[in-house]
Amino acid sequence: MGIEIHSFNGIHFDLDVEESETIKEVKQKIRSKVNYPISQQSLMNGCDKLEDDNKTLSFYKIKDGASLQLWIAGEWKITVELMNDLVINLQINPNCTTEHIKFAIQNKTLISTKIQRLFLNGKELEGFVADTGIQDGSILVCRAKMEIFVNISGRKLIVGTKSDDSIKEVKLQIRVMEELRFHKQKLIFNGTELEDDKKLCDYGIVDGSVIDMIEKRYNKGELISVTVEMYGSIMSSGPREASAVQTFKVYDHCNALELKLALQHSLKVAFRQQRLLLGDRHLDDYKTLLENNVKDGDVIKLYECLCGC
């Protein structure tokens, strides 16, 4: 009798079988067609999984003309080697495509799928994972379609890009790798400072180009005096103790997070557990005190959030 096999990757083919043949024997015939190891094959008849390799087709009531679905069983763990000697581990579904792997890499590293190239043993990978030679435990190499070098304090950082990426997108990658905020990055190519909204191609930057990065020393702003009153919790009605009221001299161009770090050092309260309020309004960690409307002489309330959320 004849049955149809519908594979996860869109491949369909017919098999000549007997009702007395076991599922394992059917899988052996499938392997001769598509070369997937028997141990990795998973067969479905509608919603029913054919779990026991030693049972026959007749046991599962498979008749002439039946259609079985072929999947690769389980999940695989793979390692991906990235630029700058970075290594990540991923857990993947072998029935997915290499595009799914690229999205997983993007989620972990912010390296855009559009610039990624995946290699296994020197061969670039495309299509369904199970058709590429990837196996559980495989080590892949991820490289960018275009790589530029950024000089940072004598070190060369490799940044994956494409020619129509904006300077801001390059700075985003630098921020992720170096934890250096946008406004503190000054990128220079051939003596010209690069503007955030322009593209690499606008400056003639190509694969292998070298860019210099200088950390900006931004204007500290005006020196102001602020008083910080520390409260035990968000429900407290007054300062916890007199010593928890302190006055600080700070620059209004520093951000609220920098103030939290100073408070952590002075008051021994972890910055992640600090909630700063001016009046009834929370201060935004990533805005400057000036942007948060903090002025000379203001009183800032500090509440402890023990959950650290």
TrEMBL record:
CDD domains: Ubl_ubiquitin_like
InterPro entries xrefs: Ubiquitin-like_dom (IPR000626), Ubiquitin-like_domsf (IPR029071), Ubiquitin_ubiquitin-like (IPR050158)
Top-rank lineage group of the source organism: Eukaryota
Ubiquitin-like domain mapped to chain residues: 1-70, 76-140, 146-220, 224-302
Pfam families: ubiquitin
SMART domains per UniProt: UBQ (SM00213)
Protein name: Ubiquitin-like domain-containing protein
Organism this protein belongs to: Panagrolaimus davidi
